[in-house]
Amino acid sequence: MKIDIITVFPDMVEAALKVGVLRRAQESGLLLARVHNLRDFAEDKHRTVDDYPYGGGSGMVLKPAPIFNAVRFIMKNDSEQQYVKANRKTPPRVIYLTPQGQTFTQRLAEQLSLESHLILICGRYKGVDERVRQKLVTDEISIGDYVLSGGELPALVLIDAVVRLIPGAIGDYESAQEDSFSGDLLDCPNYTRPAEYDGMKAPEVLLSGHHEKVRKWRRQQSLKRTFERRPELLDTAYLSDEDLSFIESLKSCND
Ligand code: 9WO
User: Fold this and answer.
1) pLDDT surpasses 70 at 13
2) Which residues are bridge partners to 140 per DSSP?
């Protein structure tokens, strides 16, 4: 997968791409990430990327030309520019991170992980000139209902969630499979050595080596947590008859 990020703070984005899963995905060739400094695409000697809003008011707006120039640069020399017909490839998704976008979910992360090319536009100040959204942007995405100072952190959140879903990106493939399988439920509690820490014991069943009992305990803990903290998730989760009767038992004990 190719991911291009357009930002006025390339250092901020590059720092996060240098560590952990994102670093390894690049080293193994699963991810080609490129960070573009919006200023490099400005058209004046001062490399101006922002300007006053028409109509007045506080804050600045990102000018259209540098962003159009950056996206044009990214798309040229790129086989995808001839995606029409002959080429089977789909055109890149051009994503603008904004609180006004559709909410980012695990489902959307899964869909985006199937794409071959994402272009992420990080806004600053009051955001981008509306013509960027009209002509360039294919998807507006929000990572949650709050306002930040720019789109860089949301872009990194999106990249992290998407890249770890690319097959092979997580060393231990089972973990990705596991959370996509039980992805409708909250995780169960985890323990590691020592078996007793400061008087607090790890649950006996986890030490028993009894795999079926461990599986059942974990499943029930997930169901219990989900029931207590996010009951609405149970409405859409895949639940076995065993799960359903366990949930019924939770409902009857109100303590
Ligand atoms: C800045 C500003 C300054 C003066 C008056 C009004 C103003 N509104 C904003 C503003 O909302 N700026 C945004 C900053 C423009 C787009 C990039 N920025 C951003 C993205 N903040 N928060 C996000 C974001 C993106 C995705 N999910 C959650 C938050």
Assistant:
1) yes
2) 96
